[in-house]
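A common beginner's mistake is to predict each chain separately and then try to dock the pieces by hand. The better habit, illustrated here, is to supply every component at once so that their relative placement is modeled jointly.
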Amino acid sequence: MSTTTAGILVVALLVAALVATYRPFGDYMYRVYSSERHLPVERAIYRLTGANPNVGQRWTVYARGVLAFSAVSVLFLYLMQRVQDHLPWDLGFSGVSPALAWNTAVSFTTNTNWQAYSGESTMSHFTQMTGLAVQNFASAAVGISVAIAVVRGFARRRAPVASGPGSLDNVVGTGDEIGNFWVDLTRTIVRILLPICVLGAIVLIAGGAIQNLHGTRALSTLAGGEQAITGGPVASQEVIKELGTNGGGFYNVNSAHPFENPTTWTNLFETYLLLMISFSLPRTFGRMVGDRRQGLAIVAAMAVIALGSLAVNMAFQGAHHGTVPEAVGAATEGTDSRFGVPNSALFATATTLTSTGAVNSFHDSYTSLGGATLLFNMMLGEVAPGGVGSGLYGMLVLAVVTVFVAGLMIGRTPEYVGKKIGAREMKFASMYFLTTPIIVLLGAGVAMAMPGQRAGMLNSGAHGLSEVLYAFTSAGNNNGSAFAGITVNTTWYNTVLGLAMMFGRFLPLIFVLGLAGSLARQAPVPVTAGTLPTHRPQFVGMLAGVTLIIVALTFFPALALGPLAEGIH
Amino acid sequence: MSTLPSWIRQHLAALRALLVLTVLVGLAYPLAILAIAQIPGLKDNADGSFVTNAEGQRVGSSLIGQSFTDADGNALLTYFQSRPSAAGDGYDPTSTSASNLGPEDVVDGIDDPATPNEDESGQSLLTQVCERSLAIGEREGVDGSRRYCTASGVGAVLAVYHAGPGFEGAITRVVSVNEACPATPFLASYQGVAVECRTPGDDIAAGERVLVRGDAPEKPVVPADAVTASASGLDPGISPAYAELQVPRIARERDMSLNQVRDLVDKHTTGRALGFLGEPSVNVLELNLDLDRATAAP
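With all components supplied together, the output reads:
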């Protein structure tokens, strides 16, 4: 079988698996978030944390909960890294430096998992297991929780009532509540992430991934050399890394490491894990707003963009244009032999389209145009299908923009799933979409203006610019993958990229919760003959178009100076 | 508690939630997986898939590649050779890495004697590929040439300087950028202008970059994976094509028949899972261990 045929069959199998997951898993998540019952373990957690699970929260309260939890997480993770040499399983590593600890703490709390360090030589097993991996769960759960809260804003079908407490959905409140953050967070972890992780970790160990608490074990190789085999609780961390679209590898080389991703089939399994939640959440959305077709339209727009991007990337990598790939005869630099070029391109596309950032091959060595596709994927704002939760709420904001644009063209008041899109909603949506480009372009611009930061580039010329642009795109969009040649473990990059990750995560998150709060207050408008249908292929096409156009107009000049200048002769 | 400002209470509640989650998913979960991993059948994997030699000593992990070279880095001819590795000095699990060099990385750094304390030299990715290809060709007795490579195994790249403006006008000077003086450039002249070797003072970026394809065959004899560094730096596998290229040398060095060696290669070739996942690859460490067993037997 030719490499190309095999590559296409892998994609077909992956798509089939995701299609099969969409309905049952999306429905399951719908039941999780609409259930009135608390599991015993959840009740125990609420008792320990002192949260009242039976109170609805307005968007401001919900947002404050998210921010408080994230702030405490950053601080906790920062301190743990700083004193890891006094904690168990320290492997003899010293405490992490302040700038790097800050960067890593923000990175894992924001679901970015940008890594300015090399796992096997920096982080103790304790830090990895009880610090970084906990945030893999927590940051993923925060993203999903916020997405569910946003959907509740769209879904709320009753107008606020003046009668006061006790009037709505068995919760105390004024009628514009969008859920309870502590309940959403707990249920996401207990009912969704943890069960899949337990199964997934065992599957990975069966494939060869390691799970132990050893340090390095030195041995004499067959040829008489020395080799130190590393240990660690890898499988348990690997599975949540993919499932939660986190991406922070236990080891420096991430999912290329044979202990993280040992075989060709674990590679497909991991690719599936990193896509499964994001591609199933639109179903949950459709169920919650009471119209499954709306979910289908959202997932269709995601799938169109994803498959288009994948085809382009696999074509560029397969055609291997460029001096070195042509000299070699294939784009094999930075790929492991068991994965080969097509399965590497598939993983790279999936990891940049979601906000995962795990890698099984090294994007810096991709062909110029193949690398440009990956950069473009992130610039889309991580919506096709995007990070867990953040992909859905990003796409919903784009849907709001799309009905607004369409409304302008046909001269009607824009509506989406029964809610009017007015000036206030558009302000939140616009602020959401301006945040990341400002962070990315400003950050990359400032870095390029400073000789000291330019020196961090490994490659020179246009490829060097791509490295810097990729770093800020990755941080601002909370992806976490890298053109890894760039030296970013410096005080400047650690600090600034940390800020980029923080603003890139929490500003859009506040804006989208504000949008949800604004929608939640509205009484739904009835569907009339004048309503723009948002479940037809026409809308899917418009949504995908708006997504691409917003990105193309914003980032095209920067792309032209970097990868396009390098790739087009 | 109720006397505290509400924002402090909120952060304390958040801290409690974080601590509870840390115990649940930061300790209970990974340690439960660790306990499950003690089940026979999973235990060896979870431990690191170690392999032992005939004497029962651990000589590595079947998942982690190794260098089969002597102390000076020269290939041991009795062993199949692994791919190039960018992990430390090669196959170092404590410093895993890819090269991260880009597709247009074609200009070597050359050392400038004017700055004796700094070493500006460094091979470009293109030169690394050319050099490896040439060395493997010599070792296996095949043609190691590749396009854009010189016969001496560096990138065949010229800097062509024009009278101006830009890259217009008559050619004034041509430098072979990867051949530092003193050297005889791979090409005597380019469009009638003599090609010079490169001195540290040459501003390479000011010249037009011209790649010389050379007369290498369309499809190089030395396979792609043999001349490129892997993603992990620990790649345990090589392509079946690279294994096949090494079979005659192994058979000769070990007094085995070609078919004996090929049988062992087949035994350690993992095909695509389900017939189409990933690429077939040959586990080099397991293969070499088996070779030792085969030739040690009386």
